[in-house]
Amino acid sequence: MKAGKWVLFGTLTLTLLCFSCASSDKKEKEEKFNEESVTVIDLPLPKEEVKSYFYTVDPKILSLVENGSPDSIQQAVSLLYKKSASGFADNEKILLSVCKDVCSIVWPSKSVNWESPEILFENPYTATIKSAKSGIYETSTNKKDFLTLVLPSLVLFKDNIQTENLESAEKDLNSALQLKADSVLANYLYAILKSKEGKSDEATIFLAKALKNAPNTFELQVEQAELNYILKNYDKALQTGQALLAKDSQNLDLLDLCTRASYALKDYETAENYVLRLLQLEPENTAYILKRADLLIKKEEYIKASSLLDVAGRTDTSSRDYLLLRAKLQREWNKNNSLASETIAKALALYPTDSEILLTAAKISSDSGALIGGKAALELLQTLLESDKDNKEALSLCIIELAKEGSFEEAYKISTDLVKKEGNKKEDLLSHIDICISMNYMKEAWELTSALYKESPDDLDILQQYIKVLVASGRREEALKLIASLQGTSDGKLRSFLYYQKSLLDTSEDDILADLRTSLTSNPRNKDSLYRLYRIYYNKKDYRRARYYLKQVVALNPRDTGVLAKNAELDALLKQ
Predict the structure, then answer these.
(1) d(CA 506, CA 528)
(2) Which of 12, 115, 234, 362 is deepest in the core (most CB within 10 A)?
(3) How far apart are CA 65 and CA 304, in angstroms?
(4) Is 406 left (phi over 0), alpha (psi -120 to 50) or beta?
(5) From CA 66, how far away is CA 462, in angstroms rounded?
(6) What is the pLDDT of residues 201-248, one digit of tens each?
(7) In 265-407, where does DSSP find H-type helix?
(8) Would you give the distance in Å from CA 566 to the centre of its chain?
């Protein structure tokens, strides 16, 4: 028994030793394993996909709706109806409603010939369109797909859009174009946005993208014509407008565009034809009545223009256009600067920053010497040029006013810049030459005038300026020869001018007086001849004769303060 117990004990001991060794070995291995560098691989969990509200709609149909052109919308609607045997799903009903509203707001020339199922549940798409129709840019909607980014910008077709709405629209439309760069709807809306921001060049770029994918779309072509007008491409604007009128002869916007483009091209007959068509459609429209009155003034049909202004005046005598045209009529037809001054002063009080009113006021002030709204012509022009520094008419008149004051250096500086501008007028060049003569810049005067004369020798204005420069620069023989060749064939005013210039070349007082009197025989209103006779007799201290000629200058320039001062001086001398 003892031997058996020892055997059992030995067996147990051995087993325990083996287990101990195994445990120790396992521990060693675990420690060794823990010491080694281990790369842990994280297996990604499947992401939860956010499905589009329209994920069950045929992708082709959704793509057509997102394209947004009239034709693609019509295709999308047709495909939706083809699949509607078992009725429309909720998201399909929304697409049909969106298509209908987009056509009515953006593409009104497109007839909607499909029924839109009634939607009785709230959704961001129809809610956004409803806000846009009310003039509200929807910002509360989660912009999670193309339509929620684009639809708020339907508000751009409303007037008086707030600046913050334009900023929101730009951000959202940029995002939409990143999703679908060739969308006709998104590109057109972006063009409208840029046009409202006054960035017509940028608007043209996006409109071109829209036209590329929908070249025959009426509204896009109308917008193209409007942008051409804004960019002063008047020929293109008129051409496009006329082509579109062939499709829609009673479209008021197109008739108005063609009126404006023809007016800008100074084709007043064509412009009047278009405004008459507008008046046939809306005979009581005061704006059209005033536009026709404006055209009649341009055509110097003053009696008709006056009658139309009387008609417009029954409705409103304080409108900007009424006052402006009434002042122009009083100045140009009635020759009544006093009345014109009163009328334009009313306009200036109501519209103090209006460029055309400021320019007209300056012209009347320049003619009459009167203050308009307490300001002289030069002050009015300076106010205008503060906001419109490149206004050529204002700059031209500013040069004349500075020359009147004897501020030739300032006039020369402005005139030099003006004649360098593209599309400068002949009158501006001739005025610049006069300033050069006054400042004795004879080389510049001669170079400019001789170039003009070489190019247009038969132009009467250029011919007279050429003779003036010949005389002023001392080219006596050449001047006398040219004057002699013209005297026998010239009419009254030109003949008067020629004899006045010849008087400047005469060497004896008898010849000077004879030529000046002949000049006045040909044209009794020649201010230069009258004023020179005044100076001759004033220097001879024959004040009675001097006053005789100066009074005629005063009659021609009743508000010229310089002439009036000289006349007052003569009156004082004659009383002594």
Answers:
(1) 16
(2) 362
(3) 53
(4) left
(5) 62
(6) 999 999 999 999 999 999 999 999 999 999 999 999 999 999 999 999
(7) 268-281, 286-298, 302-313, 320-332, 337-350, 355-368, 377-387, 392-405
(8) 46
